[in-house]
Specification:
InterPro entries: CHP02241, Phage_T4_Gp19. By secondary structure, the chain is mainly beta. The protein has one helix at residues 74-85; strands spanning 12-16, 29-31, 35-42, 52-60, 63-68, 91-98, 104-120, 132-138, 141-144. The strands form two sheets. Strands 1, 2, 5, 6, 7, 8 and 9 form a seven-stranded antiparallel sheet that branches. A two-stranded antiparallel ribbon has the order 3-4.
Length: 145
Amino acid sequence: MAGYYPPWGFYYRVEFGISKNKNDTGFQSVSGLSVEYEMEEFREGGENRFTHKLPVRTKYAELVLKRGMLTDSDVIKWCLAAFRDRDFRPTDLSIILLNEQSEPLRTWNVTQAIPKKWLVSDLNSNDNAVVVETLELMYRYFSVQ
């Protein structure tokens, strides 16, 4: 197909159902958008050359989001409520890959996410680095549009 190029992976935004704060949409990296089948092995009597592998259920990886730390973030308030108060409020979120005109190319809709881990990068007076926060989220599944 002439003129077709795969999309670049650096222009995207992340929209959380629990946040209307525009600052909460920017992340420097998103990883963990993967799904795989758990397989069950079945050994057939008299057949010693192989085992049957049957799909059982789908398994989704944990979603990992990284960004420069924000001092006012609805997403971090949501995380801290879960860690501090055990107030787990699942939320949906969307990861939207954009083209050069800021139009959506592909959207991953993540369902019922909850925080699993919040990590702040090391503070070191010898480094001239931005403080990075990492969020690990568990979720039920994602769909692709």
